# Entry
Amino acid sequence: MRTFGSLLVRGLIVGLLAGLLAGAFAYTMGEPHIDAAIAIEEAGAAHTHDHGEDAAARPLVSRDGQRAGLFLATTLYGVVLGGIFAVAFTLLRRKLRTGDDSYAALSLAAAGFLGIVLVPFLKYPPSPPAVGDPDTITKRTVTYLLTIVIGLLAVWAGVAGSRWAARHGDLARLAGGAAAFLATIVAAYLILPAINEVPGSFPATLLWQFRFASLGTQATLWLLLGFGFAAAVDRRLTRQKVVAA
Amino acid sequence: MAAPARSIAVPAVSPRLLAVALLSVGLLLLLGYLVAFDQGAVSQSGMYLHEVMHDGRHLLGVPCH
# Structure
């Protein structure tokens, strides 16, 4: 058994490394698309002579500063996720019906990615600069956070559904889980407001290249978080230290 | 000689553990707010944090201006 402090520190360190590497993915795969979107944004601003947006002409932080800030953002985001992941692992470990800690960590990471990334992504795909109405930022933030809550609820419903149906066999267990998960998100998707602020002139290819880069960044983060934490709690990997101590 | 794979690595959940765990989550969410949302929807620190984290926010899927 490990103490909570030891688990939390492992989560924070794994999250830091996962965030840093997700930053490397975002830098190579995402930055070119952000640059392209900003070029479109600036070309649009030049045409309309919108002097109300002088901040865009003389930015507070240079583009190079923002590229470096990308690593800061993903790393801190990774630390936050890693810490919360360690807390969730501590509180939920006994409810996960497996004897293997590493397998439990991987399952939890898969559930987290599904609920926190994939469910919000499919309803409100992220948008590059030059897409999005600044006046609706509050609405978009609230609905985004709502989709995360709904995503986690849907995962919980899926687990509950699969356990309820498990008495009828493996096939029923899978079907029950999928049905409860899908029913939850389909209902939520229908109720949540549609948001479509992509200008007709914005290139569809660039939009989706950006979106897949964003999904890849978050997938990298969760994949490394899951496998990293699984390794960090694996007795088979850490056994030598225990013996030596 | 393989070590046993089966183990439960976590301490039992006590009220004290729960309090420490929730406090940790609260502090982490505060940090997360600064990274992902400050000056996104609500302004607390001016534009600086938003501008520094700008590219990361977009690529992490958080709504941005």
Remarks:
- Residues 132-197 of chain A form one domain.
